[in-house]
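Whiteboard transcription, Tuesday session. T.W. wrote the structure tokens on the left side:
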């Protein structure tokens, strides 16, 4: 796999800019109150035990990010994808597939057999994951309460 590297702190600001750029668009319309808040959100992911991060570059430009962490579990360890985003102008060109394949190869070497993630059920990404043989869990629901 060409130009995929592990997360490096020196790229944090580029990652932050790409994260805001991708998710402020439809259908997410994220609206972070400040760059600092978004940076702290990413730092929380990076500082999670078991964190693994992958960056994809084209020439010297960052065009893809995949962040998550290994979760210890009684049925075997799992990898929880927390954030996965490709620069808008190069989405749909196989880069997400390339990064996911890279992740799967790397996880297989660490005896991780399952990848899990949460996403909005009407997001275009669902089609991507189904294409990649992810299945929707029929026995899990996501609950929330505004307080
Ligand atoms: C979702 C995402 C990571 C996929 O990466 P990508 O580089 O765009 O996807 P690929 O080009 O590798 O597509 C792989 C396959 O999924 C399909 N696919 C990708 N996006 C799709 C979409 N929006 N609708 C339908 N199919 C889609 C492609 O047709 C392709 O099929 P093929 O292998 O038969 O050609 C990327 O589009 C993205 O960053 N989207 C915005 C952020 C996002 O939704 N992140 C995930 C949140 S959890």
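and on the right, the sequence the group agreed on:
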């Amino acid at each position: 796999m060409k130009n995929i590297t592990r997360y490096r702190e020196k790229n944090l600001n580029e990652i932050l800019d790409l994260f805001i750029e991708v998710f402020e668009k439809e259908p997410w319309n994220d609206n972070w109150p400040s760059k600092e808040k978004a940076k702290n959100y990413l730092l929380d992911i990076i500082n999670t035990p078991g964190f693994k991060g992958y960056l994809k570059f084209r020439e010297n430009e960052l065009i893809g990010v995949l962040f998550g962490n290994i979760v210890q579990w009684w049925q075997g360890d799992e990898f929880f994808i927390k954030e996965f985003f490709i620069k808008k102008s190069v989405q749909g060109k196989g880069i997400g597939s390339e990064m996911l394949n890279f992740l799967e190869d790397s996880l297989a070497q660490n005896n991780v057999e399952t990848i899990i993630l949460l996403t909005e059920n009407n997001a275009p990404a669902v089609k991507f994951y189904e294409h990649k043989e992810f299945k929707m869990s029929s026995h899990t629901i996501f609950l929330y309460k505004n307080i």
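Someone added at the bottom: The beta strands are 4-6, 51-58, 61-71, 78-86, 114-117.
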